[in-house]
Specification:
Blueprint lengths: L3 E3 L2 E3 L5 E5 L3 E4 L5 E3 L3 E7 L4 H9 L6 E6 L6 E19 L16 E14 L3
Antiparallel strand pairs: 1-2, 1-7, 3-6, 4-5, 6-9, 7-8, 8-9
Amino acid sequence: MLYIELDGGITRMQPQSINWEPPAGMGNDGQGAPVYGPYWSCSLGFSYLTLTEYDRWHAAVDGDAHTVTLPHPITGRMTDFTSVYVAHVTPRLVTNVQNARRAGETGVDETCRAGTTGADIGLSRITVT
């Protein structure tokens, strides 16, 4: 199984998607050869996370470097990447509007419920060797 780890804590839910972005081009050197930045970025998409897992990832958006275990973008082997920044954790919200009041209706519950089911997580400053 594929277990993503954050600072040694395992995320039991499997990511729905893992997308790697290679270093961006920064221009050309004096010889005209392209120059690339040193860091990769990665986005993780989870269709479901437990509240504990979501809170752990969200708390890591703190400006500190973390160790994250991910599949290597080239080899696919699980690799510990150090000095990784958790750039953002965006919840995926599910809204239940089935009972929301429609214009002019009476006797219908006005409640609109929303809940977090998953999250999109952005990781940056990843050094891939």
